[in-house]
Amino acid sequence: MSALVVESESFSYSVHYSARRRSVALQIKQGQLTVRAPLGYGLADVKTLVEQKQLWILKHLQQSAAQLKPDWLALQQVPLLGTMLTLELRRAVKSSVDLCNDRLVVTVSCRTQASDYNNRVQALLQQWYKTQAVNWFTERVGYWQNRMQLKAADLVIGNWRTKWGYCKNTAQLGFNWRLLMAPAWVADYVVVHELAHLKHLNHSPRFWQLVAEHYPQAEQAKIWLRQHQYELEL
Predict the structure, then answer these.
(1) Which pLDDT does position 5 carry in this prediction?
(2) Among 38, 40, 44, 52, which Cα is nearest to 6's?
């Protein structure tokens, strides 16, 4: 049996060849797509089949990922730029979120009803992440625009379901706060990606050349985001 990894625009998948197989099968397990094919079945034919089944694949990848989504509150920990913070929940008069070394202490007001408790914790955590994101992305945009000799305008932190960032023709940059739940090197890739759009407001070969010139880990970061995006939610 032989195997190889293939990259598409929306996801990566592995192709496994076996002399015992007589037909092609698509298998989605633990958020990953595997194509099982008989020996002699051309890779071009595999890619064509995957393109034809793309809507079905994306639907089932999302369903599989949803089943794997971590319950951070139950795990009593949350990720921050590649580190894991111990999550400590408390009750007090006033709600707050405080970072104490490697502990993130979330205090929920005693006035919050039990039925709203988890929603309140998630809201507090999301606001905390957004605040951290403003500081982190401001610093990283400053660092990378100096290295790339580009100049961004204002910066927006958002909470989007289908994008990690954007660059407008006004030079405004936007970043998803959930990137702070990813490793720093992955979030840095998104910064370089959006800054590169200041020079090429498209995804042309020259755009990707500029990204790769300044961030050689770009492909690894793209793969990481595709494979782990379901983890970046509260």
Answers:
(1) 65
(2) 44
Pair of tokens at residue 28: 């989605």
Bigger pLDDT: 162 or 129? 129
Distance CA 177, CA 179 (A): 5
Structure tokens at 93: 């008069």
All structural domains of the chain with their residue ranges: 2-68, 72-231
SS3 for the chain is CEEEEEECCCCEEEEEEECCCCCCEEEEECCEEEEEEECCCCHHHHHHHHHHCHHHHHHHHHHHHHHHCCCHHHHCEEEECCEEEEEEEEEECCCEEEEECCEEEEEEECCCCHHHHHHHHHHHHHHHHHHHHHHHHHHHHHHHHHHHCCCCCCEEEECCCCCCEEECCCCCEEEEHHHHHCCHHHHHHHHHHHHHCCCCCCCCHHHHHHHHHHCCCHHHHHHHHHHHHHHCCC
* Domain 72-231 -> CATH class: alpha beta
Instruction: List, for residues 164-202, the tens digit of each pLDDT value.
Output: 999 999 999 999 999 999 999 999 999 999 999 999 999
Tokens of residue 56, six digits: 């079905």
Give the closest residue to 218 by CA, choosing from 144, 133, 135, 139: 144
Q: What b/e string do you get for 43-59 counting C-beta neighbours within 10 Å, with b at 16 or more?
A: eeebeeebeeeeeebee
Q: Which amino acid is at 28?
A: I
Q: Pull the structure tokens for residue 23.
A: 């037909």
Q: What angle do CA 164, 126, 106 make, to 5 degrees?
A: 150
